[in-house]
């Protein structure tokens, strides 16, 4: 249950702030790419996502495959994907 609560927090709080910021402060995705700080965070998030996906492909934690981690990361960010992916794998192995 704690993993589900952590994943909901990761989905709603950091990702929610980003979505709110993107819709209120920027008018296009090009504006976001022009912001060097935002671009640095986006690059870092993708780098971490692919590193963790490689790790989960090499050392699976359960029956849910590594590419679902990438899908979850793109939907809700790393703060959502890590606990939810781990919860999915623990739930499917019971």
Overview of the structural elements:
- The protein is an all-alpha fold and 94 residues long.
- It has one domain (2-92).
- It is built from 6 helices and no strands.
- The chain has helices at residues 2-12, 14-25, 29-34, 36-58, 67-76, 78-92.
- Helix 4 packs antiparallel against helix 5 (67-76) and helix 5 packs across helix 6 (78-92).
- The longest helix is centred in the middle third of the chain and has 23 residues, at 36-58.
- It starts with a helix and ends with a helix.
- The mean pLDDT is 90.
Order of helices and strands: HHHHHH
What is the CA–CA distance across the termini? 14 Å
Strand content: under 5%
**Number of helix segments?**
6
Mean pLDDT across all amino acids: 90
Question: What is the makeup of the main sheet?
Answer: none
Low-confidence segments: none
User: How would you describe the shape?
Assistant: flat
SS-derived structural category: mainly alpha
Level of helix content?
over 70%
Oligomer: single chain
Number of strands: 0
Q: What are the defining features of this structure?
A:
single chain, 94 residues, mainly alpha, 6 helices, 0% strand, flat
List the helices and strands and how they pair.
Blueprint: H1 2-12, H2 14-25, H3 29-34, H4 36-58, H5 67-76, H6 78-92
Helix pairs in contact: 1-2, 1-6, 4-5, 5-6
Compose a concise summary of this entry:
The chain has 94 residues and is mostly helical.
């Amino acid at each position: 249950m704690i993993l589900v609560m952590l994943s909901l927090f990761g989905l709603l709080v950091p990702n929610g702030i980003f979505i709110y910021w993107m819709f209120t402060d920027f008018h296009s995705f090009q504006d976001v790419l022009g912001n060097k700080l935002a671009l640095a965070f986006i690059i870092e998030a993708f780098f971490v996502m692919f590193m963790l996906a490689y790790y989960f492909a090499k050392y699976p934690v359960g029956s849910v495959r590594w590419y679902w981690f990438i899908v979850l990361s793109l939907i809700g960010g790393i703060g959502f994907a890590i606990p939810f992916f781990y919860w999915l794998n623990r739930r499917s192995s019971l």
